[in-house]
Every structure is written in C-alpha cells, then in structure tokens.
Amino acid sequence: MKVLLDIQALKTPRGIVATIVVLLCGLMPIIAPAIGESFYVDVFARTMIWAIAAVSLNLIMGYGGMISFGHAAFFGIGAYTIGILAFHGVTSAWVQWPVALILSALVGLVFGAISLRTKGVYFIMITLALAQMLYFLSVSAQRYGSDDGLTINDRSDFGIGFFNLDDDLTLYYLIFAVLLLCVYVSWRIVNSPFGMVVRGAKSNDNRMQALGYPTTRYKLTAFVIAGVMCGMAGVLDANLEEFVSPDALNWPRSGEMIFMVVLGGMGSLFGPVTGAVVFWLLQDFLANWRGFIGDHWAIIFGPFLILVVLFARGGIHGLVDRLFSRKGGAQ
Amino acid sequence: MTGVQDPLASMLSAESLIKNFGGIVATDSLSFDVAQGEIHAIIGPNGAGKTTLISQLSGTLMPDGGQIRFDGSDITRMTAPQRARRGLARSFQITSIFKDFSALDNVVLAIQAHRGHSFRFWRPVVDDLSLRDPARAVLEEVGLGARADVLAGNLAHGEQRQLEIAMAIASEPKMLLLDEPMAGMGPEESERMTAYLRSIKGRYTMLLVEHDMDAVFALADTITVLVYGRAIASGPPDTIRANAEVRAAYLGED
Ligand SMILES: Nc1ncnc2c1ncn2[C@@H]1O[C@H](COP(=O)(O)OP(=O)(O)OP(=O)(O)O)[C@@H](O)[C@H]1O
Ligand SMILES: [Mg+2]
Question: Is the ipTM of this complex over 0.90?
C-alpha cells in the first residue's frame, strides 16, 4: 500500500485522514465481526463502490470544472450491462466487463461531445437531461424488469478457481483493490501533461486556447475516462447487489455523487473517498437512530450537507488542513 | 518567405477586416501590414476597436469580413489554438493568467503547448526538466525569477503583467500581439517594461496596442491610429506626431 501512496503526503493532516480511511476499508472484514456488527462489511463494500464513482466524478468536477449532474448514467450503464448480459446467459467477466467499459466510453463520448458545447448551468442541465433519458429508457425496458429492476442470478465469472466472486470476501477485496487503483490512476493523470491541460482549462479556458490548446478535446477525453471509471463502479455494484434497477441511474444518485465529492473535498485526490465513507456512515448512523431522528433522518442530513457546502470550503480534507494549521499557528 | 530574413517581408497583414457588434462597427474595413521584425503600434481612444482587432488576429473573435494572412498563409478561418501553435502569441489587456497555479507552472503550461500534443497521461510534469528549466529561464528574463513558486494569484499587479508577457514569449513565437502591456502599471514599472520590450525588439515581430505614448514613440517603427474601427493614419512615429488630423482626433494638445 505504501508503494501506492506518496510517503511525504502521508505526514500531512489530510494524508493521515486518508490513511485511516484506507485502513478502515482494508481491515473492515476483520473489524466488523470483532465488534459484532458484521453487516458493516456490506456497508463498506457499498461505500467503496460509491467512492470509486465519486473519485471518477472528482476527476472532471474537481480538476476539470465540469459539474456533471448526470454521472449516475455511467454507473447505470455498468450495472445494467452486467445485468442484461447475465439475463441472456453471458456471465463470463472477460466478456461482460470489457463490454460494460466500452459502452461507458462510447456513451461518455456522445454525452460529453453534446454537453461540452455548453458551459456553467447549461452544462449541469444537459448532463442531467441526457442521464434522465437513459433513466426513462431503463424504466420502459419491460423485458428487464422496468421499475422493479432486474435480479442477477450469477455474479461475473472469471473462470479462475481461486478467484471466485461468489465468495464475498474475494469480491470485497476486489472492490478495495479497484478503489486504490482508481485513486492511483487519478493521481497519475492529474499530475501528467494531460492533467495539467485539464486543470488549466478549469482555471482559465480562454488563456489555454490562446496558448495553443484545443481544450475541448482534452476535456472530452477526461469526461470519457471519468465515465469509464464510473462504469466500473456500476459493474462492481451489480455483482455486489446481484440486482440492478432504474434507481441506479436516476438523478438523486448523481446528486449524491456530487455531495460525496464536495463533502470530502473537491479537487483533492483522496477527498471523494473520505466523502463517500462519511456520507454513508452518517446516513447509516442517522437512519438507525430510534424514534424521531431515525424516521426523519433526512431532516438532519439535508441541512448538514448544506452547512458543509456553505462553510467547509474544500470539504473535510480542507477542514482538516485548516484545523491543523490553526493549531500550528498557536504554538 | 519562411526562413528568409527579409526585413521588408510581411509577417502579418489584414485586408478589409470588418467586425460589427449589433449596430456598432468595431472594425471598419481595416487594412494594414506588419513587416517582419518591426514593432507596429496601434493607438486610438477608448473604444476605438483595438482589443477587438487583436481578438480577431488571435482567433478569439471571427471577423465578419476580410482576410488575415500570417507568415505566408491565410489564417482567417483558423481557431485560436491553431494560430497560437503556428507562432502567433498574444497577451491580454485584462490580465489573464492561471491564478491557482504557481508562476512557474503558468509558464510551463505556455511551453508545453508547443511540445506536440498533451495526450500523455502518466509521467508527472513536475519531473520534466525539459519544461521546467526553460520556464525558469523565461521567468528570470522578465524579472520574476525569485517569484517562481508564488501562486500567480498572489503576485502584485505589476508582477502579474510581467507574467502575462512571460507566457506570451515562453513558446518563442514568431509574433507577439500585445494588448496594453503597461495597463495599470506605475511610471517606474512602465519604464522597465519599455526597456524590456526594447531588449527583445527584433527577436519577435510585435503588434503593440498601448495608451502610454512615451512607450509607443520610444518603441514603434510604425504607428497606426485607430478611431471608430478605422485607420485614420499610418506611418513612422515622426509623421504621426506631425499629422494634424491625428492631433485633433487623439493626441489633443500633446
Ligand atoms: N463582445 C462585444 N459585444 C458588443 N460590443 C463590443 C464587444 N466587444 C467590444 N465591443 C464594442 O466595440 C467597440 C470597440 O471595443 P474595444 O474593446 O475593441 O476597444 P479598445 O480600443 O480596445 O478600447 P480600450 O482602449 O478601452 O481598451 C466598443 O464600442 C465596445 O463597446
Ligand atoms: Mg482594449
């Protein structure tokens, strides 16, 4: 794990938070049974999948300034590809996974090419509209369960004896590995020449063009990469839940992804992972509260999210940085 | 024409350029010629259409009519990035930099733009000395060497103007389009900028838009006077200074 993370960065406050989150995810299959709350393994598997989606969204939103309100579309494409192929008896991962990722890329290319003609609020609305089109398509697909969704009888089959996704622990650590890989890939991309161009376009698109960069091409490529990464999250989700429904690509899901990114810290590499973990744990915690709060957890959760957006600029990672530096200044 | 250092050869020419904004004629059948190696100044009152002209030359605005030739080819229909990569660089009247990048990274971006495509996804830019060393040299040259690691947004106004120029020259373009490089500078800073522009005279062909008349008359080989998008006079500094129409329209009692 240390190979993947910058040793120097580990000493910073946000590095410490990231380390704790990684350890929590990596050790949950041991921690949860030890404290008698085994269901937390499931909670964390789900959380990590959403973290992958949030990391992918952060790539375009945090680093590229492209606020997509339709990112769940890719999650849905990934999940439905697995579901529909399994429905037709195709369970080999070697077929399912490439098809899911290629479809995500193609849809990313089309959606990106359309929405990148616009900016600001229009970009948000168009990404939302395009994703909702897919949502309605999934609702109207009677063959695949419409509103009721599609049960997946068999998880993806890699045809490798010891690597069997039917084993929950194997699936858990596959999700964990994919999450770490996505964070690592994002880190490479963000600091590469390509990443510099995307960040430059977020900072000042006109200047980038005046310098000689056809920025739209670069932003479109980033959009496709993020789409594929989110499609991967959908692939894992279909395997974990053994079920997919139109909810997976409906707009509240896209909104939740945005919240996770903002909550953790937009434009910080590990922020979205922290955001996803806090998002799910808090929701889980509030929903399980007995009485009034448990029944109406959204009453607390909603305002909390708004407070974070308003006051915790840079999200949790930004907050941790500021708390730490204030302490340092007092000494 | 390429490669031959013929001082009379034209580097950039505009022919019957027209640009309208609704009812306003911002560029009115404008024709002019910038010879290789010269500094060609464009002066004129506020709203004369100087920035609009630079934007059409650099490709940010498409003209409604006319033709632009640069370095031997017709660039009228080319996009801004295409023109930039051909060696036509510009600076902005209203400072346009990457505020959340360090001064050095601003220049790195400018240089990287001319190193082929940037569809390279893996190797960190920080490790690329072939970008950072020349970027440092450029900052050194414009007098920002000591400020390389400061966030561009935290630089003083004058320093941001220097960075603006640094980004324009970083790619070693064939020609510079400078939109009021001295805008908002104090007299001392202006003098330093003038001295710097004189020091790079001949290295780049320049189209210079500037309100600072001391700088213009000190630097320009040719001056074109723009009023309501129209060139009312064009010629060497002495001729322009003596021109009665120009004095009435623009220079006043100067
Ligand atoms: N995008 C635009 N839309 C409408 N009108 C515009 C636009 N840009 C410029 N104009 C108008 O065109 C005219 C020329 O403007 P421009 O900015 O080119 O003048 P300028 O010579 O650069 O002035 P200054 O010395 O103040 O910089 C002005 O009347 C201005 O109001
Ligand atoms: Mg102007």
Answer: yes
Asked if B117 and B240 sit in the same domain, the reply is: no
- Overall number of domains in chain B: 2
* Number of domains chain A contains: 1
Q: What is the pLDDT of residue A296?
A: 77
Does residue B31 register a pLDDT over 70?
yes
Q: Which residues span the domain enclosing B130?
A: 98-172
Note whether A313 contacts B: Cβ–Cβ < 8 A: no
Q: Containing domain of residue A39, as a range?
A: 2-324
B20 Cα to the center of ligand 1, angstroms? 10
- Please report, for the domain that includes residue A184, its CATH number: 1.10.3470
Q: Residue B67 forms beta bridges with which residues?
A: B15
Burial class (CB in 10 A: 0-12, 13-18, 19+), A303: exposed
| Ligand 1 centroid from CA B49, angstroms | 5
**Which residues line ion ligand 2, judged by CB < 5 Å?**
B 50-51, 93
Sign of the torsion angle spanned by Cα atoms B183, B189, B194, B198: negative
Residue nearest to atom 26 of ligand 1 (CA): B46
Which ligand 1 atom is nearest residue B211's CA?
Answer: 25
The first and second tokens of residue B65, run together, are 């009519």
Residue A213, chain B, CB below 8 Å: the answer is yes
Please report the pLDDT score of residue A13 as a whole number.
Answer: 82
What is the average pLDDT across A201-205?
97
